[in-house]
Design brief:
The protein is of the alpha+beta class. It has three helices and eight strands.
Length: about 230
């Protein structure tokens, strides 16, 4: 048996021997990492070297700096534009308010002008009249607002200086026709005190179908008529 085994080992039919060098797995991973790192370093060096040859690196840095400066300038201009826009909006708002106030003042001035014109028409009658009576009715204006309403205005003055105050009543009487028949109506007496001059006005209601022809204003003190004025319509 032993002879047979020895013979098999020494003959050609003996089994082949394989010699292998075994490395641990960590050593293999380390070698692979070194190879990859070296390859990456070579690639990066080649890339940077190519950029240096083409002059890309310097231009990129300069362009980046220039772009940052332009962005800063644009931001500043945008801020200034916004400030100007806000100021313009504030000015427009203030101008609109000023225009509204001017329009209101204009309407008030027109109303005051009309009132002054009315007063001027009344005060034009403040010319001293003839005669010795110091109290008189110098103005009586009557206007028909509607078919059933009259608007009236009376101006009373004392022509004499330092005259005592007049205390009495103002009466207003209208004459005309009602349904074809003679007709008259009187306003309720109104107490007045004349100190230099006095103006009174009001409205008087009329019956339907009344036609007014004359209006008479009287200043009465007790039973005495101190002044009387009549106008025709």
């Amino acid at each position: 048996m032993r002879l047979r085994l020895l013979r098999r080992r020494l003959t050609v039919s003996s089994p082949r021997l394989a010699i292998r060098s075994t490395l641990p797995w960590p050593v293999r991973w380390l070698l692979a990492a070194v190879v990859l790192g070296f390859s990456a370093a070579i690639a990066l060096w080649a890339f940077e070297f190519g950029k240096g040859i083409a002059g890309v690196r310097g231009q990129t840095t300069e362009e980046l700096t220039s772009l940052r400066q332009e962005v800063s300038v644009l931001r500043q201009e945008l801020s200034e534009a916004r400030s100007i826009a806000n100021t313009a909006e504030s000015l427009l708002t203030a101008e609109k308010v000023a225009q509204e106030q001017l329009a209101l003042q204009l309407r008030q001035a027109q109303a005051d002008n009309q009132a002054l014109r009315n007063d001027l028409g009344f005060f034009e009658r403040l010319i001293p009249g003839s005669g010795g009576d110091d109290l008189s009715i110098r103005g009586l204006q009557v206007q028909a607002l509607t078919d059933t309403q009259l608007q009236w205005q009376v101006l009373m003055i004392q022509a004499r200086k330092n005259a005592p105050d007049f205390q009495g009543v103002l009466e207003l009487t209208v004459h005309g026709t009602l349904n074809g028949q003679p007709w008259q109506a009187s306003m309720a007496p109104r107490k007045v005190v004349v100190q230099g001059y006095l103006r009174q006005d009001g409205l008087m209601d009329l019956p339907a179908g009344a036609v007014v022809k004359t209006v008479t204003a009287r200043l009465r003190q007790g039973t005495t008529v101190r002044s009387e004025h009549t106008v025709r319509l």
